[in-house]
Amino acid sequence: MQAKEIRNLEIISMKIKTILLAALAATALVSARADEVTIAGSTSGSFSATGTNAYQKLTFNSGTFDQTTFLNQGGVGGAENNNFGTMHLGSSANPGQTYSGSFDLFITFTAPAGITGGQDATYTALVQGTLGPKGSPGGVSINFANGGAQTFTFNSGSTSGSFTLTLNNLSISPGRTVAITGFFTGSQDTTSVPDGGATVALLGLGLVGVAALRRKLATA
User: Fold this and answer.
1) H or E element: which one contains 112?
2) Domain count, the chain
3) What is the pTM of this model?
């Protein structure tokens, strides 16, 4: 075999090795893709005037929620078992009765995991509303400052991102039950290890090719 042919085979062998190393490195990398965000959890609450979930004729009942964004937007509506709790005002409410102080809503998130400032599994946020009179006699309003808007970031190791949650203000008439609702926007990056099947096959073929070239060079 001529020196030029041997040199060409050596160059080809080096290129194959380079490709194999690149393929091997790819197996250690992760790919990221934008994804929708799911928020889930439960709520509890108390009134500043009493320290409990009841204040005069007003009673808060805990709720649960589990909702996923669509095109990075989502809503937690008034459906049963999918709200931030409900507020009931007794029908015997005195039209002259006044409500003051604040209402503290505690939202415990079980998803997404890894919210900044919390533990890996859960995180509890506080949203505070101010009580006041409603237009109708005996009615009560609860207004959340800035819509109770809060932005949360999270990183569980396999997913990372952020979402902003905003609550709707409440207006409750005597004898009515109103759900606490809201909406949220957000996105996350989901990381995953690429499928190594094709890479393994490529490595196998490459190794066979390198071995064949070495045998040919050895016999040259």
Assistant:
1) none
2) 2
3) 0.71
